[in-house]
Design brief:
Elements: H1 2-6, H2 8-11, E1 15-16, E2 19-20, E3 23-27, E4 33-38, H3 39-44, H4 53-66, H5 83-86, H6 88-94, H7 100-105, H8 114-126, H9 141-148, E5 154-158, H10 169-176, E6 182-185, E7 198-200, E8 204-208, H11 218-228, H12 231-239, E9 246-249, E10 252-255, E11 276-277, H13 284-292, H14 299-310, E12 313-315, H15 325-346, H16 353-383
Helix pairs in contact: 6-8, 13-14, 15-16
Amino acid sequence: QLKQYLGDDLLSYGLYGGRQYAIIAKRVIQANTGTFIRKDWLEKLDLPVPDTTDEFYQTLKAFKEQNPGNVDKVIPYAMTHDVDYVAYGFFQTFLEDVPDKDYYVKNRLFLPGWKEGARYLNKLYNEGLISPEFPLDRDGKMRDEDVVRGYAGSFGGNYDLALRNVPGHNTNLKKNFPDAEFIPIDPFTNIYSGKHRKELYDPTGIRMIVPKTSQARVDAVIKYLNWMADPDVLFFLQFGEEGVHHTIVDGLPMLTQVEGEKMMPSLQNIDYTLIVNGIYLADETKRIQANAFSYPGNEHLFEDSYNLATRDGYVNPGAGLIPTDADAKYSKVLDDKELEIYASAITAKPEDFDAVWDSMIEEYLAAGGQEVLDQRAKLWDELRGN
């Protein structure tokens, strides 16, 4: 049952040199990034939901020029310092197709088209269409404040960010503006393919291994996980007893709050359901509906958020490869340097953009970036072939 539940593709993530070193849990939700926009602002300006990058740009300009919220300051697109995530779609607009090896080895900064995404953000910055102090917002609190105070017309981040109870963007915005609501959109179209490309999470949850000191119990471990893969067992572990831990509403389990000895130790009992990450139901439609229950007050937006966040999605071809020594050694330094590159290049004068970007890329390579690229190329060839 375990092999049938996980499938060969998922199990391959734990396969090294033809041997199964790890059992891989199934990630239910692979959606990663999303974008949200003020529905009431669109309606007030009689604008359609933008479905291309240029339509989105024109919408941001309209927000800036017409101030549909009648607020003290308008931030058409709210951002934080985590540029490559919160403004991810702008980069995808210009990204060219590359071989799988290059996609893994080159990291984001060196992918053809990524620089043009940053140049586009530089244009938006100089036109006053994105958060003017985004490099200073290192924890997202400035962005969150701008959202709930009604200053922001749109923003990006996690695919479900506007729906979550924490930080509560929609929930807290409605306290200040009862008719306001952020809805999910997917406006970024790639200039080469016309598709709404985006990188998804790989389909894996945790990797389960048996240490050498317990090798005599490998069979027992597999037997336990195989028992867990039984649909009835997995349902009970995730949702508990009907009438105690959940009720059935329209054919779907709705979790209830339980105190005392029958209280589950974590959401969906995730610490016990080792083979799955997220609410799992065999029927995909019901699975999406059941996940929507996790967003009280915003349930009606979840399906669109999920579907838009997975449209034309793909998984990083390097997912599952072990980190190189250079990745481990330089990760903090290079992550910080990448943030510096975005902050400096995007806030530069348009005529200075190329010089700033190119000089800081050289600094990145000298700070360990080149060593990372070299080791990743070698690792790919060793594990995947050239």
